[in-house]
């Protein structure tokens, strides 16, 4: 597994990097056969240290955890515990509800855009209704079943997930509703 351990305006020493690699590596290897890379970022928020960890698995899952504490090692240990809990739940759900995936998730390229926020100025009417593109990035859309998409959205803590439905290759969306349930958008072409 590749590690990227960094600090935002914090010096990360060799001892902490070794601790991160040992603990995170052991926690992830319990529940994931082929983790690809891990990104660990330490920062300060007032008097607390904050640790944000993201682990990418070969199945296409991205698990992330965030924790804070007064000591930097305690912040990482708490974050590592949260990551281990997410991966344990993921593994249990795979065993209980979903078939084992023999092949890694297929990813499709797509463009992702960041649009400028519109200034709500009552006096001035905008010249055009076209938004201003601030940034353009490349993103990946996984090919998943609906159950796997819901599971990945919940584990990642994301409000929604865009995916390609394995059943019919159409682009679908699952999202967290205000009432706590999960919504699923499955557009059908007109006949």
TrEMBL record:
Q: What is its main location?
A: cytoplasm
Does Cell inner membrane show up as a keyword for this record? no
* Sigma 54 modulation/S30EA ribosomal protein C-terminal domain residues: 130-183
Per the record, the GO terms for biological process are: negative regulation of translational elongation
For this protein, the record's InterPro entries field holds:
HPF/YfiA_ribosome-assoc (IPR050574), HPF_long/plastid (IPR034694), RHF-like (IPR036567), RHF/RaiA (IPR003489), Ribosom_S30AE_C (IPR032528), Ribosom_S30AE_C_sf (IPR038416)
What Gene3D superfamilies does UniProt report for this protein, alphabetically?
A: Ribosome hibernation promotion factor-like, Sigma 54 modulation/S30EA ribosomal protein, C-terminal domain
Q: Where in the cell is it found?
A: Cytoplasm
What Gene Ontology molecular function terms does this protein carry?
Answer: ribosomal small subunit binding
Q: What keywords appear on the UniProt entry? A: Cytoplasm, Translation regulation
Can you cite an annotated GO cellular component? Answer: cytosolic small ribosomal subunit
PANTHER family recorded: 30S RIBOSOMAL PROTEIN
Q: What does this protein do?
A: Required for dimerization of active 70S ribosomes into 100S ribosomes in stationary phase; 100S ribosomes are translationally inactive and sometimes present during exponential growth.
Give the family from UniProt.
Answer: Belongs to the HPF/YfiA ribosome-associated protein family. Long HPF subfamily.
Subunit-level organization: Associates exclusively with 100S ribosomes, which are dimers of 70S ribosomes. Interacts with 100S ribosomes.
- Protein name (database record): Ribosome hibernation promoting factor
Q: Which organism is it from?
A: Rhodophyticola porphyridii
